[in-house]
Amino acid sequence: MISSRLRPALAHLGDALAYFLVRVIVAVIQVLPLDMGNSLCRGLAWLLTGPLPVRAKATDHNLNLIFPNATAQQRLQLKKAMWHHLLLMVCEIAWAQRRLHLTNWHRHVTFRENETMLGYMLGPRPTVLVTGHFGNFEIGGYVSGLMGVSTLTIARRLDNAYLHRWVERFRSAKGQHMVDKEGCAQMVDAHLRAGGILSLLADQHAGDKGCWVDFMGAPASCHKALSLFSLSSDAPMLVVSTQRIGGKPMQFEVNCYGIADPLSGGEECSGVPAMTKWYNERLAAAVAEAPEQYWWLHRRWRKPPARVAKRLAKAAASA
Asked: Is residue 161, in this structure, part of any structural domain at all?
């Protein structure tokens, strides 16, 4: 039996070893040429979908739910492409610190709707940027900071304190400020009152008491706070993504899929359910462009409570 005094020390040592291993792997990735890193990711993706399956149950559940008419082979190919994307995403985060700079960003990043986005992001009003576990959202935050756009991002603290500090240093390197989701409401409100930009991942499961809406054809629970941040501060909500293009590493397109402005009086801003439904529809449109770049291993869809399932079924029948 391990004594209660020794257990924290062993946990501390385990975190330190995990951090050391991650830093060694990142150091190796940073010196790899882009094409070699891309090929390595393809090989590892084959391993993770075949001989050494990881999170296969959750991934299969999501793909079967969202693509019920796809063949087993099609779902397998999508799963493999997803793993290639996720592994390449890790490589791109490691490469960004050495290869993505203020003087060369235009070689790696293009924009759709850039004038519209910058008009809101550089204007005097507060702005809420919404994205999901799609594309390389970490690069999106890095690039916005690189271009002088400072944002506040809500994120859960990692259990490993060493890894948390390291990831936070990367995210904050160019002006992205991180706050823990626990007890952050007052800080976020003050940030928006000052005309700041809030950046959020919108596809986090919010539990039974969340706002349940349709997401890609299946019920999903969403945090009400996202819409409340926008509606309570009259902050326009922009649904954005940073999508890899051309099948090449370190080549991205930043796009805006819609804007909901509470001051415009649109139907999408009539309340929390309407805005939540609106941004989920826009996120679904983004994922439809490159479904292999979505985190299908993410436990996004859960079984709704009976009363919610009944309400959603009734709404679907009347639509």
From this structure: yes
